[in-house]
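Practice problem: Alkaline phosphatase D family protein
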Amino acid sequence: MPTLTRRTLLLAGVAGVTAFSATASARPADPFTLGVASGDPTPDGVVLWTRLAVEPFAEDGLGGMPARPIEVEWQVADDERFTRIVQQGSTVARPEEAHSLHLELSGLEPGREYFYRFKALNHLSRTGRTRTAPPPNTLQAPLTMAFASCAQYEHGYFTAYRRLAEDDPDLVLHLGDYTYEYEAGIHKSPSGIARHVDGPTTVTLADYRRRYAQYKADPDLQEAHAVAPWSVVWDDHEIANNWAGLQPDTPQANFAHRRAAAFQAYYENMPIRRSPRLYRRIRWGSLATFHMLDTRQYRTDQACGDGLQLCPERLAPERTMLGDDQEGWLFNGFRGSQARWDVLGQQVFFSQYDYIPGDVDKFLLDAWDGYTADRDRVVARFADVRNPVVLTGDVHAAWGAEVKERWDDPSSKTLATELVTTSITAGGDGSEEYEDTAAWLRENPHVKYFNNRRGYTLTRFTPDELRTEFRGLDYVTRPGSPVHTKATFAIEDRVPGLNRVS
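Answer key — structure tokens:
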């Protein structure tokens, strides 16, 4: 065998010299067209994922696979060549779940890097790399975590995912809008349409499966999945724009059936555990706890018909973003936390933000500004943890904000910090700023940073500091853009707030 580097392995996979290798006999088409992934690490395990599809864009959404279970072998090793295999076995991929696999492994060692691969239909998958979480009650550091959101296929190429993979994170959080539901050509960015999706607006299970297949066949996205474990939560576009509970943004028949189809397709295509709920915790020893929230399924419908407007109804005390059960789960997690950093992985803008400079206040009602009482309850509970940090997606730009005790008093106490990642592609190429950025920031002095380029956010956790790099691309309407660090901020232990480093 020739000498192989880690990069070669992660880009192409390896057909090794063991009996697990693909054979040279006649065989059907490659079923691993959608790549591999891992997710939701624990100290002794991780979820391994793949989905078999020899014809990923087949009209029925079933990937050209036969209507029968397919045997899939798998291996986990602690070296790139698979000479030290630690676990292996076989299972079946079933047609009722679009031949997807979710292996919930246990029995691995904590805080370790592992490599994995699959074999089916005489084909060998590429190699993926994953990692288990550190042991409980240990401050294993540093942790390099990247987070991203909002990948509209038509608005650009997924170069940001490849650049994220090249930054070699230990963990990736995706905060929603992994896919978009629109039919081709109707959801344009200011930069236009860079490439086209197939099919109609996603409504049926077959529609959603085909849309995921087009996204997951993208080689840049496959790179990001293969480099590290992910923890994911949905926002609106995985289902339909600005949905809330069982309420769509615009009236439509049988939305409950549409939502159920979208939920099933999401599970089939994400490296998540089988669970009755999406909200959950990822614990990284005692260094960090990530509280991954679902801000769509349990919320009250948006106030005043949604949108950007002046709306007294948004202040009603009964309005909820999280719902009673999830809110109680979150607050119990705060009370029992021993983590140095407690991090909310969630979808929509948390901090107050007045979009209209001057005496008239207008707020985005799909965000936490439409659910002020619930936000106030969450902010009050930040006192229960040592270092609260809010991570956000959704708004297609990078922002840094300080969560204040009183939003309309800039001198009031800072209680937490919000980091908002820009989009992977949504919004097109973007710009450094808007014409009215300066006026916006004067109206909202707790907001310390804004940039309108596409990209992602890279963070580095240590016991003493959380350091954040807002990473931006020059363009997304053609492939291959370099990435640049637009700004770097530090948050000190026990000192909430943003300190600009560069």
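Discussion: Residues 143-500 form a domain with the Purple Acid Phosphatase; chain A, domain 2 fold (CATH 3.60.21.70). Students who identified this feature from the tokens alone can consider the problem solved.
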